[in-house]
Structure formats: structure tokens, C-alpha cells
């Protein structure tokens, strides 16, 4: 008898879940934007998949191309980021010059 009641309650719960409205939400507006400069397209295409412009703007400033090249390569090799290896130079130059 307990199994029957449990099955009925489970079925009722599943029916309620199946007929529910999908949850919707609005993401907040970004408060930072990538600076318009040579290489911005490479950063938007390759870095924005994982990082917002807010996140990039909070990184240590004026690190230089060598730092950003190492960071981009780390994203590729360690984290499996889908960064186009041919874009690493443009990404590093852009970030070094603008952040």
C-alpha cells in the first residue's frame, strides 16, 4: 500500500513539473566594454566565450605581451580553451596595450 501511495505522489509531482512554465531571466547589462583598438576582434572572438570584459579589466594592469601570451597559451593547454592559436599574438598585443 505504501508503494502505491508513493507511486501516485511521484506521478502527481512529475505531472506538475512537466506542465510548469520555463524559467526566464535577464542578464544584467555589462558595465565594462572592450576598448576599441586593433586586436579587439580577436579578444571578443576568442576570450569572450569564457570571460566578460569586466573580468579582463580586473586583471593586473600593464603586464606586457609576454604575460598575455603565456596566459592565452595556458588557457589553450591547461583549460582546453578553443582559442585559435594564430590569434594569440593579436590577443597578447591588444591586452598589453589596453589593459
UniProtKB/TrEMBL annotation:
GO terms for molecular function: electron transfer activity; heme binding. This is Sulfite dehydrogenase (Cytochrome) subunit SorB. It comes from Mesorhizobium qingshengii.
Amino acid at each position: 500500500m505504501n508503494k502505491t501511495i508513493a507511486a501516485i505522489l511521484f506521478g502527481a509531482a512529475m505531472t506538475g513539473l512537466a506542465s510548469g512554465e520555463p524559467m526566464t531571466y535577464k542578464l544584467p547589462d555589462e558595465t565594462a566594454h572592450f576598448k576599441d583598438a586593433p586586436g579587439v576582434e580577436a579578444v571578443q572572438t576568442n576570450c569572450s566565450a569564457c570571460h566578460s570584459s569586466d573580468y579582463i579589466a580586473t586583471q593586473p594592469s600593464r603586464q606586457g605581451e609576454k604575460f598575455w601570451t603565456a596566459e592565452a597559451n595556458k588557457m589553450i593547454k591547461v583549460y582546453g580553451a578553443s582559442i585559435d592559436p594564430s590569434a594569440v599574438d593579436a590577443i597578447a598585443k591588444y591586452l598589453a596595450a589596453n589593459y
